[in-house]
Amino acid sequence: MSKQVDYTLVPVKALEEPSKCKLQEDTRVKVYPRRWLMLLMFSVCLLVNCVQWIQYAIIPQVITRYYNVSTTLVDFTSIIYLVIFVPAIFPASYILDRLASLLMGLRWATLLGAGLTALGAWMKVWSVSPDRFLITLLGQTVVGLGQVFQLTTSPRMAAVWFGPDQVATACSIGVFGNQFGVALGFLVVPLIIKNHDTLLDIGSDLSFMFYTLAGISSIVFIIVLIFFRNKPPLPPSLGQALQRATAREGHKNDFLGSIKRLLCNSNYTIHLVAYGINVGMYNTVCTLLGQLIEIRFQDWEQFAGRIGLLIVLVGTAGSMVFGFILDKTHKYKETTLAVYILTVLGMVGFSFSLASESRLLVYITAVLLGFFMGGYMPVGFEVGSELTYPEPEGTATGMLFIPPSILGVVFTLLYSWLIGVIGDLWASLVFAGILGIGAILTACIRKDYRRLTANTGPKHRHQDLN
């Protein structure tokens, strides 16, 4: 089968199973040019959301002074994104899957994400007063809830619109919005918000930032409302054709049954824990980066912002590189394991570079850590989709975010506590060791590429496993 399929009649008898609905003898699949526009809108939605995740934690001194709160509460403005994921992920996944059965799940999930992002941004406009920190937390909670709908739909967005040889790359580009938004937060926020002598001047800076983000978020919501489409007229792959045929013949999504099957999939549960460790650690490093830099360096605010920007930007490049590799080689386990091991080494190097107090070494090791740790997220998405097909992508991806959300909170609190007890170097090395456990778990995952089999047939799978 050719790599690019346009209105080609493709035999699908190999996919038929007695327990599943049957496809027509000949099924047309096509990839549409408009898929890139859909992907761009989806990425921008994630960008506008994620730029708000780190906007408080990257300037802890200014926020603690303006609102007269502790550093722990400032950290919680980022942690709340992780906390909200756990109670919200199941209803969000259920809504997505139920709407998907009505052929409109992707559009509504994206609209909900963009709408909640805009609503939370406008709430924070009203938080500019030293006695309104609670409104700040409420606004962050609403924006974090919007991210639940957006992140869980990233693999589905790629699968619904892109062919089998572009799915991993598309997923990586989708995640690009997430990572680039965090990068902008690291870069722009310290430039806008200064630690002025008077609280009134700090409030003016905050107002400018919040009004700007609220306006941009509203424009993005309107664009998505007008132009974003749920799915192309024809499926882009045989795997998507099978899922559409299931919906046409009246098969209902069994949400609870799907969760049960996912948890009984030993490969997937191992991947859940390994993914949770890696992405939870990424969230922790981003949240505590300002504190880690402050311990060792003077005039650290803009330096921390540049390091955070560097970590996220090279992570974005890494995600696209590894997505391209997956599309070309389909070596899911090998790629994932290599990225994980190099992430461990990057964390060790970053820990020692901070202790050395050499800015040059911190820059170099930040590049290595960011490239592999940031590049792991879309790789993990794709491995999860391969191990769980034909379960709905929204449910499988939603489950993937529960461990990093829980571990991100635990890691952040534990990391911060260990810094005060044993010092920043040993605390960082302890967490490098935890990453090593995740690499060992990844090595235990068996090759079971179910979606690849559906798209290319059993013959390809046997060749890959031999």
Automatic annotation (TrEMBL):
Main location: membrane
Keyword rRNA-binding belongs to the record: no
Membrane topology: Multi-pass membrane protein
InterPro entries: FLVCR1-2_SLC49-like, MFS, MFS_dom, MFS_trans_sf
Localization (cell): Membrane
SUPFAM superfamilies per UniProt: MFS general substrate transporter
Keywords from the named record: Membrane, Transmembrane, Transmembrane helix
Domain of life of the organism encoding this protein: Eukaryota
UniProt-listed Gene3D superfamilies: MFS general substrate transporter like domains
Transmembrane segments: 36-59, 79-96, 108-127, 173-193, 208-228, 268-291, 303-325, 337-354, 360-379, 400-419, 425-445
Major facilitator superfamily (MFS) profile domain boundaries: 38-450
Protein name: Major facilitator superfamily (MFS) profile domain-containing protein
High-level lineage: Eukaryota, Metazoa, Ecdysozoa, Arthropoda, Hexapoda
